[in-house]
Amino acid sequence: MTDQHPIAVLGGGSFGTAIANLLAENGQHVLHWMRDPEQAQAIRLTRENPRYLKGIKIHLGVEPVTDLAATLNACQLIFVALPSSALRQALQPVAELLSGKQLVSTTKGIEAQSFLLMSQILEDIAPQARIGVLSGPNLAREVAEHALTASVVASEDEELCQHVQAALHGRTFRVYASADRFGVELGGALKNVYAIIAGMAAAMGMGENTKSMLITRALAEMTRFAVKLGANPMTFLGLAGVGDLIVTCSSAKSRNYQVGFALGEGLSLEDAVARLGEVAEGVNTIKVLKAKAEELQVYMPLVAGLHAILFEGRTLNQVIGALMNAEPKTDVDFIPTTGF
Ligand SMILES: NC(=O)c1ccc[n+]([C@@H]2O[C@H](COP(=O)([O-])OP(=O)(O)OC[C@H]3O[C@@H](n4cnc5c(N)ncnc54)[C@H](O)[C@@H]3O)[C@@H](O)[C@H]2O)c1
Ligand SMILES: O=P(O)(O)OC[C@H](O)CO
């Protein structure tokens, strides 16, 4: 069933475009808001978004728009696909218009200083809005190319979850619901850091054993951190936890992995980010995560190691040596209890 109102997607990058297309393919009228009028006009004329999703045809049901206030006024359900660095700055000025709306963040980042996740920023800006997140193993290009894909909508608001499921479910996209908004969102933000490490390991020609060790120890580390913050560790066994970790740490289509690969080839961080030309959220997340782990005294050797390479002048070989020679540890070191 299609919505009476158009559905808004905020953000003209690869994920916003992929989600807008999915919604339109399901018969929804989509107002796809982007800040750049030239980009909007180019999409209207060519039905493509060549900078971010070259070669993908954009459905006629997607209407590129640049008037943010008019877009928010017209829509009840709003997907936010802005970079984490831009979300607050873009939406604070229109906060009043968000009241009572269903806001679904797809942005996988953490705000510096506040350590707020993106849906917490939405809550902060618009306390009267209904808030959710969409997260999972969802590489934008694969979503747009109709690879069979699953995602998670997470919110305490069941009606919002059902609305998102109805709007997005289709032949190639399946949405699972969760009530654990915090855990789902945290998983999406944390995995980007480990994807950078996985990209570095790939560039150095490390083997499949190494990849498996990295992913598994990353899962242990991010779960340990999440538990310290009061999250449900079981969420990390789902699509938005280990699912997203696997895809992002395994695929050269991931921008975070690409940054790591470039670093492993010897590029500086600045050059690696410049070569990418798109958002790699893990680059900002690593700084705030390292600081928070120290503050909370959570053992996160992979995070500490990446931080040491990027910002403390350590070499990759020094860090690998330290990681492999660290004191012996147990394998699974958190025990889910019925309290969660
Ligand atoms: N691309 C993916 O595969 C994917 C999948 C799931 C989630 N995400 C998440 O979605 C978020 C957005 O990523 P993306 O891949 O679409 O990014 P992108 O790099 O493809 O595009 C970013 C877009 O944001 C716009 N933008 C930047 N600053 C802005 C501002 N101040 N106001 C308005 N627009 C602004 C840019 O013009 C661009 O259109 C990220 O947090 C990412 O983690 C991405
Ligand atoms: O391209 P990345 O590294 O931002 O990852 C994209 C998605 O988050 C994968 O689920």
TrEMBL record:
Cited PROSITE patterns: NAD_G3PDH
The UniProt entry annotates the active site at K191 (proton acceptor)
Binding of NAD(+), residues? G11, G12, G13, S14, F15, G16, A140, R255
Q: Which GO terms describe its cellular component?
A: cytosol
Major location, coarse class? Answer: cytoplasm
| Location of the protein in the cell | Cytoplasm
Sequence ranges assigned to domain Glycerol-3-phosphate dehydrogenase NAD-dependent N-terminal in this UniProt record: 7-160
> In which pathway is this protein known to take part?
Membrane lipid metabolism; glycerophospholipid metabolism
Q: Which residues bind substrate?
A: K108, R255, N256
What PANTHER family is this protein classified in? GLYCEROL-3-PHOSPHATE DEHYDROGENASE, GLYCEROL-3-PHOSPHATE DEHYDROGENASE [NAD(+)] 2, CHLOROPLASTIC
**Function of this protein?**
Catalyzes the reduction of the glycolytic intermediate dihydroxyacetone phosphate (DHAP) to sn-glycerol 3-phosphate (G3P), the key precursor for phospholipid synthesis.
Q: What is this protein called?
A: Glycerol-3-phosphate dehydrogenase [NAD(P)+]
Q: What is the lineage of its organism?
A: Bacteria, Pseudomonadati, Pseudomonadota, Gammaproteobacteria, Pseudomonadales
Per the record, the gene is gpsA
